[in-house]
UniProtKB/TrEMBL annotation:
This is MarR family transcriptional regulator. PANTHER family: MARR FAMILY REGULATORY PROTEIN (PTHR33164:SF99), TRANSCRIPTIONAL REGULATOR, MARR FAMILY (PTHR33164). Residues 1-148 form the HTH marR-type domain. Transmembrane segments: none annotated. CDD domains: HTH_ARSR. It comes from the Bacteria.
Length: 148
């Protein structure tokens, strides 16, 4: 098969999926066993914030129960903790633990390692594809949800 015959969208999807699989395997090797690709959708909303389960469900476009399940998995793995809201102690907020922040750092490092010289042209082509399909704003606002 001549990969150059594939359309850009298909090639981007296949390359992205392959990269994600490779990064996930490396994360497991370096001590982040149990982490799944879907956890990244949750973690992206905990990097700069501490949402409630309801808020997280809205951000992810899923039910409160689905968001709660994801948080529970990440809590069991030691990446997330739930803490009282500073204003209303009845409200619980989710935030990354030190282990969760280490996961973010490790993931970012492994992704940077996949960058290769001359990849600026490929990045520009993928950004043009995002623009052409209306996906840029969702990416910039961290509104890409599981299944998108």
């Amino acid at each position: 098969m001549d990969l150059m015959r594939l359309d850009l969208a298909t090639l981007a999807y296949l390359a992205g999926s392959s990269a994600n699989d490779a990064i996930l395997a490396r994360l497991h090797e370096i001590g982040h066993a149990g982490v799944r690709i879907s956890h990244g959708y949750v973690i992206q909303h905990l990097i700069e914030g501490a949402p409630t389960v309801s808020e997280l469900g809205e951000l992810l476009g899923v039910t409160q129960q689905a968001a709660s399940k994801q948080l529970l998995e990440l809590e069991r793995l030691g990446y997330v903790e739930r803490v009282p809201d500073p204003v209303d102690s009845r409200v619980r907020r989710a935030r990354l633990t030190a282990r969760g922040r280490q996961l973010v750092e490790d993931s970012r490092r492994l992704r940077r390692e996949l960058d290769v010289p001359g990849d600026a042209a490929a990045k520009r082509a993928l950004i043009r594809l995002l623009d052409a399909t209306g996906g840029t704003e969702k990416v910039l606002k961290r509104q890409v949800v599981p299944g998108d």
